[in-house]
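Q: My labmate handed me this sequence with no annotations at all. I'd like to see what the chain might look like in three dimensions before we decide whether it's worth expressing. Could you predict it?
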Amino acid sequence: MNTNITVPNEGQWPVSPYIQGTPGIGSGQRSYSAAAILDFPTLLRIIHHWRWLVISAVGLGLAAAIVSSLLTKPVYRAWVTLEANPPAVAVSDEQTREQDSQATNTFDFVATQVGLLGSHAVAERTAQELNLANNPDVVGQEGGSSQRLQAAAGTVQGGLKVIAPEQGQLIRFSYDSTSPQLAALVANGVADSFINTALQRRYEASAYARNFLERQISKTRGDLEKSERSLVEYAQQQGIINTGGGGVGPDGKSMAGGGDTNSLQGESLVQLNSALAAATARRVAAEGAYRQALATGPTSDVVASVQPLRQQLAALQSQYQQKREFMKPEHPEMASLQSQINELQRQISTQSAQASSGRINGLLADYRGALSAEQALQARVGQLKGDVLNLRGRSIQYTILQREVDTNRSLYDALLQRYKQIGVAGGVGMAPVSIVDRAQVPSSPVKPNVLLNLLLGLGLGLAAGIGAAVSLEFINDTIKTREDVRKKLSLPCLGTVPKTAARDSFLEDLKNPTSMVSEAYSAIVAALRFSTEAGMPKVLLVTSTRSGEGKSSSALAIAQNFARRERRVLLIDSDLRKPAFKTTSDRVGLSKLLTANDSLGDHVVETQHRSLWLLPSGPLPPNPADLLSTGRIRKIIAEAREAFDLVVIDGPPTIGLADAPLLAAAAGSALFVIESGKTRTRSAIEALNRLEATGTQIVGAVLSKSHDSGDGYGYVGYGYGYGYGVGRRVNRTEILMIPKAENVRDVTDAEADA
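A: Here is what I predict for the chain of 754 residues:
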């Protein structure tokens, strides 16, 4: 066969928008996280797939709810409403201030009452007052009375539920029992017992306070009488006489001892000290006036006494000055005037001196009298000071005794006043709570709540079913749908091939253009036309993660589909370990071309399909990877590219072998085949990473053997493994590709793969 044929250029098709962005050359390593793809549509598909599991879980939940409702004994609940009342009476002033402060904090007060209401003491008193220890409906009659009482108290406390109010002072509590009458009886009994317990507690506190005050008053009265007798005896022994009661201190209370002014000597000393202060003031004033008179000279009184003489002197001096203008001083008239002036001046001086001397003598006498009085008072005061100091030394013990008397009297008065305030009525006061609504006999049980139990059973069953479905789905981490291919592998899904009903029907379906298989591969071929910017790749490697996923069937179907369109197609069987296609002769094939420099046309055979040629694998070599690692495979593929319109390479599986990456590097483009429900996600990702590491462009993926032609899927198990080589038995046959001149029946291995 002459293969030196000029192949016309393939038409150009625009790239489909959903294919753009497909990981190809230079793309990064893929990674997979199961939680990252659990979106709402995926969850719906999981629930749809595992719907019988979810329905079974919901049914079990509802059945359990119904059985639980039927087996549960009816429980009745009785409610009581109480109002919290703040305390109004206290034993002491300090407690009154403290309780007033607590009453302002309503929340703390109500919380305290809620805690007391659920206490064991209230439950025990209720059981005792209602005689629940002898009620066989409450406790068994085994054991002693005290044991039955404690058991009844525990039953009351266990069935009691107190609800603290979020706002206000209303406290609600309930009691649950299998008997409606007993529920109402115990609930009302708890309310009464709580009030009685609170009143008794207050009465006991008041009684204790009264007894305590009586003992303290008796003791304080004896101490007061003893201290008063000691004070009087000491005053008589020392001759201490007080003229008044104790002094009043700054705080208004009586001062012990009263101070020194309460004695006779003290009062005299105070009076003489006041007189001494006045005498000292008089002496100081007299001395000042005397010294000022000596320093300042004549006063206004002296000047007034000589004022007429000064006026005469002034007139004579005026005449003397007037006549001096026309008379000389020696003139007799001038001499007479001068003698008169001199006489008047002498008289003025004499009278002024006499007046000043009399005034100074009077001031001196006053000063001396004041000084004498002051000195006499100082002597008396000094004497009284000694007496007072002596009395003070003798009054130290008196002051101590007086202070003790005052203290005992104050204690006695305070205790007596408090004792008068405390009484039985005042000690009891108002109860901390009062009953607003008493419990009524309930007409219907609160348990079991059939509707609530059914809703809980439905919810728990649904949650358990969905949880189990999601868990099984991720345990069965396989590729099942187109959406799984796009999300888990980041690849476009070019098409889905349904699983054939019988092993021998694949080729028959492939020959029938209207079959589901044929239509599926027609859609895949149409998608391949838009897989790259240049259209359909001229060389396409078809590979998969492991064997038996339908890659050989897909390669044959794609090659045959293009051949029907009058395109020259070469199908290369590059699986040199377990080939899927064979001819009547093993003397030609890929392994021969890899070890020799023969022409491609010498080893290509024409098949029974028009425009479809086959390059078989040839004899199985001992070292396929070594043959494919040479540069010969690139030359073979380049020669095939030039001779044919399309080269489809049926490659070996990717995981576990080095053949597929070597072939992918030579081909440049690869189509990845995934078996629906069988191929593990992580295995597929590892295979794709190995292919892309060689620079190969993954044009897309084909989902084979699908149980549903749509986006749904059916579960086909999750066991997987890849064993490839000598010693492993695989249930498969081979596709016999023969020249069309020979009329031989086709025996398919692709049917087994399908």
